[in-house]
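Table 4 source record.
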Amino acid sequence: MPVVDVINSQGEKVSKVELSDELFNVSVKKSVLHEVVTMQLAARRSGTAAVKRRSDVSGSRRKLFRQKGTGRARRGDIKSPLLRGGGVVFGPEPRSYAAKVPKRVKKLALKMALSSKLQDENLVVLDDFRLEQIKTKTFLEIISRLNLGNSLIVTHTKDETLERSSRNVPGVKVMRSEGLNVYDILKYETLVLLEPSIQGIEGRLLS
């Protein structure tokens, strides 16, 4: 089992923690990570782009002028796609971009993402990140002291003080362990786990 130092908000080592081999010592396959990240990003697409078809445009269906004898092109009604304000052909329609990935592949990708952070030495374990009040300045001081620039901070339970103190800080995101996902782990350079959150992650992925 890999053993990682646990530090406090002052940057001092206070203890060590053993991490599960099943979560943090998995062989990383980029193809699996790519599949799950693509699925996540596709699910975020709204898919609401649409155009008005001939039947959606308001207007009379009466033929604009007689077929022959005018010297003009043959016209149908005013909704024709050839006329300004007419219906659109071959335009986009509302659709879902969601892609399905098996649950076991999602779990495996999450384990690989966690393992990659440990292998790249971009995993930090904090004993606690408690703030007495909602204060962005105090939050930034701790982040600077620990040299955590671009980082994802994972908590075990809802911590409104921490979440609200960090929400205006660019390059930093606070997330609860139940919302942990492959895209966010890979997006941020450093993964910061509060020590109690490790148990929550293990309970979610090893069950």
